[in-house]
Write a structure and sequence with these properties.
Blueprint lengths: L4 E4 L15 H14 L3 E5 L5 H10 L8 E7 L11 H8 L4 E7 L2 H8 L3 H16 L4 E7 L1 H7 L1 H13 L4 E6 L6 H14 L4 E5 L6 H10 L4 E4 L13 H11 L7 H4 L2 H11 L17 E2 L2 H9 L17 E2 L7 H11 L8 H16 L7 H12 L7 E10 L8 E10 L2 E9 L2 H13 L10 E9 L10 E8 L4 E8 L2 H25 L1
Parallel strand pairs: 1-2, 1-8, 2-3, 3-4, 4-5, 5-6, 6-7, 7-8, 9-10
Antiparallel strand pairs: 11-12, 12-13, 14-15, 15-16
């Protein structure tokens, strides 16, 4: 089985995405996670460009990596400067990295208009820079920047740049689709031509401006590339880079190439979410393979088929990449969806039970009113318990009042909520303030229930979304409130719908608190 080396550029290319800025500590955490995944090369950054990357290379030396080699990135030396005196090349050597990877110009237009030097001088820069680095590193890679554009314009010159790097001792010639505009057939045509002239191993580095970075990377491997560069989740400048979270399973599971072990492929979803978290970005639920929706089924016919044979609507078993099958509940749901969720929740019902059809009809009626249980599975589980008659009410609302007061024009409003609840025959009457009316109501409800249910101190409100449902009705429109809550171990979603945003928020808040208490009770019974 042919081995393909994975070269991750998340810590450099990924940070060029406009939403991402990793600290040195963040980069160390990501590097550790990539090492656990079994990535062969981790590009740590450009030590000649900024102090943060210099510090990263100092700190990463203290980390004991088991699987990965750290690569330092840079450019060829400057014209008219000896390699031994070039600050960029010296910074690469000083980084102490295991590997060096430099880029050079392969497109004659860039040579003449960006560098403003003669074509032959550019070839000398490439050769001299690689030759110098090979005296300090046992592995040096050459990134042929804009190679495919250069090949289309002047194929003979583009290949000459590769020959210069190969003659100097480059261990891998990485062909870069820097503008991200190449089509798969163009990648294939160029690589076939390169292989006739150059025998050095080839790599591929694609950007995603035409939404083809993964496809272009895969066809490059089919044509003989042995190194693939990309980023976790496809993070990168403009439209991003080739997504390793798609490339790795495609290579391993679909194409039969050895890149990382089966056990490590199963960590892919975990790593994808981890990097999103460190980048402080919401994880894209629609990512292939690793997204939360990648193996989610909504239509009743689909669910019925998947329950009989997952292969009917799943191209691989989600567990192979550390993901899971999910069934969503909506107005498209049939009995199959209900039975699947009941089994997931540990509720024993059958298709022939009248309650099953009752659940289907109730869900469709509620979704018609604006409820959306796809993002509020905790509310759906509580709804099932209510319809089945097994719901246990843990507190009763006697009443609440919310005041939102603005005392001065240049000061923020003050929100205060007063609430009265009854628990087991005991009445609790309390008040709390908050950043807004919903926050104040949340604080007051917890304060009232804390003495009865101390575990509520663990609950945090993680996200709060409001959507207007009936456009055109102005301030009288119905609204849907989705709340995401969490404790030390879990996250859950709840929902409320009303023409009054406070009432809708109250419904979602109550379900959130109720679900926490229900969840704790289930754990005690196990």
């Amino acid at each position: 089985m042919k081995t393909i080396k994975i070269y991750d550029t998340t810590l450099r290319d990924g940070t060029q995405a406009e939403e991402i800025a990793f600290s040195v500590e963040d980069k160390i955490l990501v590097a550790r996670k990539l090492d656990e995944l079994g990535i062969h090369y981790i590009e740590g950054g450009w030590p000649g460009s900024n102090p943060k990357d210099v510090q990263f290379f100092k700190e990463i030396k203290k980390v004991r990596l088991k699987n990965s080699r750290i690569s330092a990135f840079g450019s060829t030396g400057r014209p008219k400067v000896k390699p031994s005196e070039d600050s960029n090349l010296k910074a690469l050597v000083s980084s102490g990295a295991d590997v060096a990877c430099i880029f050079g110009k392969s497109w004659l237009m860039h040579v003449e208009h960006a560098l403003k030097i003669a074509p032959e001088e550019n070839l000398e820069l490439i050769y001299d820079s690689i030759k110098f680095l090979k005296r300090h590193f046992d592995e040096v890679f050459y990134d042929a920047e804009h190679f495919f554009n250069g090949f289309q314009a002047q194929p003979t010159y583009a290949i000459k740049t590769l020959k210069a790097a190969a003659d100097a001792g480059s261990d891998c010639l990485v062909l870069c689709d820097t503008n991200g505009g190449s089509l798969p057939q163009e990648i294939v045509r160029a690589i076939k031509a390169v292989k006739k002239s150059v025998k050095t191993p080839l790599g591929i580095h694609c950007h995603n401006d035409s939404d083809l970075a993964v496809a272009n990377s895969l066809v490059a491997v089919e044509e003989g590339a042995v190194q693939v560069q990309g980023t976790i989740n496809g993070y990168g400048e403009r439209c991003g880079n080739a997504n390793l979270c798609s490339i790795i399973p495609n290579l391993k599971i679909k194409m039969g190439f050895d890149c990382i072990s089966d056990a490590r492929v199963s960590k892919l979803s975990e790593v994808s979410r981890f990097v999103s978290e460190i980048a402080n970005l919401t994880h894209n639920s629609h990512l292939p393979y690793v997204g939360e929706s990648a193996f989610a089924h909504k239509g009743g016919i689909h669910v019925s088929a998947v329950m009989k044979s997952p292969e009917t609507y799943e191209h691989i078993r989600p567990e192979l990449v550390g993901n899971r099958q999910r069934v969503l509940i909506s107005d498209l749901s049939g009995k199959s969806n209900i039975l699947y969720k009941a089994k997931e929740f540990g509720i024993n019902i059958k298709a022939s039970d009248p309650v099953t059809q009752n659940l289907v009809e109730t869900i469709k009626e509620l979704e018609h009113k604006g409820y959306q249980f796809e993002g509020a599975e905790a509310s759906f589980e509580l709804l099932m318990k209510r319809i089945l008659g097994t719901y246990k009410k843990r507190f009763n609302l006697i009443g609440f009042r919310v005041i939102d007061e603005k005392r001065k024009e240049d000061e923020p409003p003050i929100a205060e909520a007063t609430i009265m609840v009854e628990v087991g025959g005991k009445v609790e009457h309390t008040a709390a303030v908050g950043d807004g009316p919903v926050n104040a109501l949340d604080n007051a409800l917890r304060k009232a229930l804390d003495k009865f249910y101390p575990s509520l101190k663990e609950v945090k409100l993680l996200d709060f979304k409001v959507r207007v449902l009936t456009a055109g009705e102005g301030t009288a429109a119905s609204v849907r409130v989705l709340i995401e809550s969490g404790d030390k171990t879990d996250k859950w979603g709840t929902i409320g719908v009303s023409e009054n945003v406070i009432e809708a928020s109250w419904q979602a808040l109550v379900d959130s608190i109720d679900y926490k208490l229900y969840k704790d009770e289930k754990k005690r019974k196990l």
